[in-house]
Amino acid sequence: MSCPTTDSVKAGSPCNLPIGTQCKATFLYCGAMMLGSCACEKSVWVCPQLPACGMDASAPPTCPDPTIVIDGTKCPSPGLQCKGNPTSCAGDMYYDALECGASGLWTTLAATQCGIDSGVSDAIFDG
Is 82 helix (H, G, I), strand (E, B) or coil? Predict the structure, then answer.
């Protein structure tokens, strides 16, 4: 069985794939469409909890500079959510939402997608 379309994968909606199957999903986050992934758990899609909208330069001082917060690299404190993975969309800098995992590595919660909405750059954080 293969994953359904990204707009069909929604937290709490039914899934008929094997437990633990990860599929791409689209999220409306802070007014922007984002691409992430959800897992099929006990016939229901389970998606990541996204950080509060509006996280910006006033983020807690424990967050490193977002230019060095990169998916798969070491992070300082499990559970810490910060912006990172800088991406340029039409010349403007945007950031993904990442969480420091129990393994001590950054994991992307919501990724930047440029040009989703009629050619307008959409992303999670603008810098």
Answer: strand
**8-34 average pLDDT score:** 83
Q: Is 93 helix (H, G, I), strand (E, B) or coil?
A: strand
And the tokens for 46? 């389970």
**Sequence ranges of the domains in the chain:** 6-126
CA 35 to chain centre: 7
CB 113 within 8 Å of CB 35 = yes
The pLDDT assigned to 108 comes to 93
How far is it, in rounded angstroms, from Cα 74 to Cα 98?
A: 12
Q: For the whole model, what pTM was predicted? A: 0.45
Query: What type of residue is 91?
Result: G
pLDDT digits (tens, 9 = 90+) for 52-76: 665 544 444 468 878 788 898 888 7
Q: Nearest-5° angle of CA 48, CA 120, CA 55?
A: 40
Token pair of 2, please? Answer: 């293969």
* Token pair recorded at residue 103: 């393994």
Q: How far apart are CA 44 and CA 105, in angstroms?
A: 27
